[in-house]
Amino acid sequence: MATMTMHASSPTTDQLSWTARERHLTIGGLLAIGLSFGLARYGYGLFLPDIRREFDLSVSTVGVIGSAAYVGYLLALLAVGRLADRAGPRVLVGTGGASAVLGISLVAVAPNVAVLTVGLVLAGTSPAWSWAPYSDAVEVAVSPAKRERVLSIVPAGTAVGTAAVGPLALVASGDAWRWAWGAMAVMAAVAAVYATWTLPAHGPRRRDSPRSHSAPGISWLVLPAAFPLYLTALAYGVIGSFYWNYATEVISATTTSAVAVPAFWTLMGGAGLLGMLAGVVLSRLGLGRSSALLFSTLGLALALLGVLPGSIVAAGISATLYGPAFMVGASLLAVWSYQVFPGRPTAGFTATLLCLGAGTILGPATLGLLADHVGLRTAFLLTACLCLVTIAARPRRHP
Hints:
- The protein is mainly alpha-helical.
- The protein has one domain: Growth Hormone, Chain: A (Up-down Bundle), CATH 1.20.1250.20.
- The protein has helices spanning about 15, 20-40, 45-55, 60-85, 90-110, 115-125, 125-130, 135-140, 145-155, 155-170, 175-200, 220, 225-255, 260-270, 280-305, 310-340, 345-375, 375-390.
């Protein structure tokens, strides 16, 4: 299969005309990523103060739970890489939906820390099961002219989920947090059923061995064109996890208002909905210039919290910048990986997500330790510098 270059051109009839199957799959993808990232994974951070208060969790315990969730995520990613050809997109995304629903439900009714941890770890595996299989799904269900467009739209589901959880936290704060998680479980169940229904049962047949279900070897994944992609994914994971974990700490330290953090979260998610235009950005600017633009924007969002940590206005601007840039960054990785690994899209993207996952582990741990020594403000500024350094790894040409 020939790879496809995204470029600025007049839209063809095929690009403008979407079949019902393509529309359903795209909407289902938005919902699948929304429930797995926006609800199952990032929702924990928004309700963390209430959860800590009820279960009397120490900072170290919160760290252990977070690490366990990330380990579960990485193990699920490894399983996806092994099962992609054999299981197909429907089974994998369905597993992700079931993990999210069951995990969120366990958190909602958790009587103790042990059950809470199991629920959070199970919910945290959902993104690993759900995102990568869409690389194979578009091969089967979407016409070639629209595949990269769909892959760029689906990651914006994170913004959809985040925008939904923010208002929920406003009306169910304090002791009512369990009701919010119960509502999240219902939302996740509806989204999971719809997303699973829209997906093909089987992925594309491989040219190399149509009947083979073996996972690709390491040599297949270690391509020269893949190293800038892997480095960008690693940095993106570090930058994103640091912001998601510590931006709310900055907001909480500057105001005693109970609505400040949920409002910040909602603003970030609402602005992130612009990420659904990622396909337009990537096609008009190309992957290289898009990468430079989005990491510059992420750097500015981080720098604002580092330079003006006590300003609510600066925090609002930071959320407005970070939301869409973060969503476009996810789309960039999906499309870039699709171009680097056209033969096995899901396996290649799984390798990319493993690098991203490694970044999400390194980010909070390393930068959090740094913040203890030099201050959170300096840590934000250093992370902003990492954004600028990452621009050097942008794609120079079509893979």
